[in-house]
Amino acid sequence: MAKIFASPANYTQGRGVAAEIGTHAEDLGGSAVLLADDIVMDIVGDTVTESLEDHEFDTETMEFRGECSEREIERVADQASEYGSDVIVSAGGGKALDAAKAVAERLDIAMVSMPTIASTDAPTSSLSVIYTEHGEFEEYWFHSKNPELVLVDTAIIAGAPTRTFRSGIADALATWFEADATYRSHGENIFGGASTRAGHALAELCYETLRRHGVSAVHAVENGAVTESVEAVTEANTLLSGLGFESGGLAAAHSIHNGLTQLEATHDATHGEKVNIGTLSQLVLEGKDDAFVEDVIEFSLDIGLPVTLADIGLDDPTDDQLETVAEAACVEEETIHNEPFPVEPAMVRDALVTVNELGERHK
Ligand SMILES: NC(=O)c1ccc[n+]([C@@H]2O[C@H](COP(=O)([O-])OP(=O)(O)OC[C@H]3O[C@@H](n4cnc5c(N)ncnc54)[C@H](O)[C@@H]3O)[C@@H](O)[C@H]2O)c1
Ligand SMILES: [Zn+2]
Questions:
Q1: Which amino acids does the record list as binding NAD(+) (predicted)?
Q2: Which residues pair with 142 in a beta bridge?
Q3: Cα Rg, the chain, nearest whole Å
Q4: What is the fold, at CATH topology level, of the domain defined by 10-159?
């Protein structure tokens, strides 16, 4: 199997860079549509439109309605096509970015990814996670390219609710464990290739960066402050995690997340929050030492991340519910089969109940 590494063409991060979008996007086209929900449009709409128009772009705006579903993608694509847009700029969280990636693929136009929260590693990737209208995970859509430009304004990131930043740390915390499992099993990354040393090393740097800067960065963001730790963790949550998972590979943590989305009770927990339960479950599944699992639980608590099932809305899960999660996590297409040993649903269920017990003990 060939080794494959791919990435966005350009990643730009810093305080105030939203106002420079016209400069960075200049070569990508001449007619842009900005996709964002109401909240995000209020935050970036004027700044982005002004900068694009200063650089000779015709600009339209469009409201994102909140779910990355096939229907929403179709609606946005039809409208963007009517506008004759050759660039889609998407601002917001993972769902808005994922929807825009699918639109860019469908219309064969350029994509600018502008995360306004550092909540997931979606901004840099070449895939979209597709949900039903009701928010259940449906499937991954793999696209032919990564976004042309990823633009991250750290002043906006630090001004967003801290919960989004914590969630991004959780999504990024999974990256190293999943990439390393894939590496050890000689599994496939998102591009259907083997991991490069680069993909593996970036995933490890992601983990080290979170451990060195995570706590300080969360405290800064609680106060809307941009410090060097906030810069480091934003980069880890967004760039290092994004490249690390795509070129390094996913494994159990994200399959368990996908399984958890089958239960409606978890829908108020963010992507990252559910992933954290997936990460801890993966460590138990892999039989990591007690001290190591406890260290990751303690770090999760320091950051303010879920360590029990109740923390993600499952106060008293029934056997049937746990069975549903475990079965969904182990379907054939799931990345859990990148673990270096065969995984059965019973093993996932047992890891989940064990994590729950360990998490309760540490609280
Ligand atoms: N494609 C990938 O590679 C990939 C990777 C990880 C996660 N995901 C997907 O990402 C999605 C989760 O994304 P998410 O956790 O970012 O949430 P989200 O996209 O569901 O919601 C983000 C919310 O935050 C709000 N928001 C955005 N910026 C804000 C700001 N600056 N201030 C205040 N509010 C703001 C938005 O209005 C929205 O309500 C899931 O669908 C997940 O599957 C995809
Ligand atoms: Zn994720």
A1: 37, 94-98, 116-119, 125, 127, 131
A2: 127
A3: 19
A4: Rossmann fold (3.40.50)
